Amino acid sequence: AGGGKAALRACGVHNVCRLLSRRAHGFYARDAGVAHRKNLGLLRRIMCQESTKFKNVWTTHSASPIAYERGRIYMDNYQCCITSIAQQPRLIYQKSKCAKSEKIEDALLLECPLGEMLPRPSDYKASLIVLTVQNWLLRLSADSGEVLEKVYLAGSCCKFFRYLSWDTPQEVMIVKSAQNKLPAAARQAGIQQTVLFYLAVFQVLPLSFIGMLEINKKIFGNSVTDVAVSNGILIVMYSMGLVRLYNFKAILEQFMEQPFDLGQEFNWNGQVGVVGKYPFGLPCNIKITDTPPLLFEASSLENAFQIGGYPWHYIITPNKKKHKGVFHICSLKDNALAKNGIQDMKCCSLEPDWIYFHPDMSGRIIHVGPNLIKVLKLKEVKNHADQMEIAEDFTIVANRENCVNNSVTVTASGRVVKKRFTLLDDDPEQETFKIVDYEDELDLLSTVAVTQIGADGRAHLDFHCNEHGILLKSIPLKESWDVTYSHEVYFDKDLVLHIEQKPNRRFSCYVYQMVCDTARDDD
């Protein structure tokens, strides 16, 4: 306390909130993180210099999917790991080819929490949580691929676990089963399947079992199509476009029958075994016997529903096909539509526009169309403090200066030719936005724009100031970009990585590294 008062006096600040704000902005040289923030600021300035280039340093091709996680490239179903941090990507480990029964279905990167005491030295290093086709949950060392922990998930009842996700990032993990479906013969015999999904809940580092529950038709209704858990909310989706939200933490507390620890011997519903060991797996110890209290519900086309902003708002599309591409931004408090809250780009395109809350936690909204990116903000309506309106913060426009779309042309002989069609907004021959992302450590908004002339498509990655949208840097990608293929682009500090999926499960990975060179060359 005395040290805190001394710091207040020394800097002439007499308000605790102001002191904390100044600390967050790095005013005090002894504060943890100040050097890191300064280094990132320097990196951003260096990267945006005209003399700084991004050079394609490595390319590889694979017959299996390629994944990227925090400076590591995974291939061959996570059996091969390559670091992308080195000047040239190099092999970290290569494991022998696994059997089909050991195939990995999903994976999450697990990073050590700061300031916590952990039981094992290996817990302080990054690891990979993977889910295998045979219902094993494994924690692997990110440096060697060694198995650090293993948990068997499914017991005697048939549960095919397929998906990993975070409830609370790096704290609480959800393992979700595929939707339970009876064989056709069983359905014809009149047998009914009431359990749709299983959810297993884990605390991570140290890995501990919280509980497992069923999503049952008898509780949530017959038309449930999917479920998800995020930030303590159970999200249930229905075939008619309805989305319902429940308090997941309250469900765990209310319907928990008996807590269990991994490795604990148990006698449960006539079964005797060890929690998390083969062949017993995990007990279904959370039984929802009544419909939980409903927090919120909304109807939206294709169950599209997002929450964000400040104060809290949500985004939906009215639940009719004719409204596809129309987005309503409403207050979560009273469902009131914000002023200017209907966003419609009126695009005529094959690919729909998309909208989402900005991941920088500013409460802003990003709306992406074929040739326009709008960054929107929520603000109070003048003289109406209880009402919010949507205002434009800035826009980013595709470069279509050379695009000519005349409906009437004149040939060399003087004949007038009228076109019977107009180009789509996302016509491949016009520059079109394909990817928009946010680099949080450098506070940059990145966009990928593509133009395809004939069989040859050209793409460039642009960095924009996240605050004002000003273009700071443009990086041409050397490889051809086919708009009919699936693409992922990762921008991670001084690294750009492009993963491409071609037909017949052919994958390519292109790695670009930042190169500071004042000489003008082709690199």
Overall residue-averaged pLDDT value: 87
- Cα Rg: 27 Å
- Stretches where pLDDT is under 50 for at least 5 consecutive residues are none
**SS elements, strand count:** 36
Residue share in β-strands:
over 45%
- Separation of the first and last Cα atoms: 56 Å
Helix and strand composition category = mainly beta
| Cross-sheet strand order for the largest sheet | 1-36-35-34
Instruction: Classify the helix fraction into a percent range.
Output: under 10%
Number of helices: 6
Let me know the largest β-sheet.
Answer: 4 strands, antiparallel
How does this structure look, described?
Helix content is 10%, strand content 45%. The chain is mainly beta and 523 residues long. It has a domain at 98-181 and 191-299. Strand 4 and strand 5 form a beta hairpin.
Task: Give a concise summary.
With 523 residues, this protein is mainly beta.
SSE blueprint:
Layout: H1 2-11, H2 16-24, H3 34-47, E1 52-62, E2 67-69, E3 72-75, E4 80-83, E5 90-94, E6 104-110, E7 127-132, E8 136-141, E9 147-152, E10 161-168, E11 172-177, H4 184-188, E12 195-203, E13 208-216, H5 217-220, E14 224-230, E15 233-238, E16 242-247, H6 248-255, E17 265-268, E18 271-274, E19 294-299, E20 305-308, E21 313-316, E22 326-331, E23 337-344, E24 354-357, E25 365-368, E26 372-381, E27 384-397, E28 408-410, E29 416-418, E30 432-439, E31 444-453, E32 456-465, E33 471-476, E34 486-492, E35 495-502, E36 506-516
Antiparallel strand pairs: 1-36, 2-3, 3-4, 4-5, 6-7, 7-8, 8-9, 10-11, 11-12, 12-13, 14-15, 15-16, 16-19, 17-18, 20-21, 21-22, 22-23, 24-25, 25-26, 26-27, 28-29, 30-31, 31-32, 32-33, 34-35, 35-36
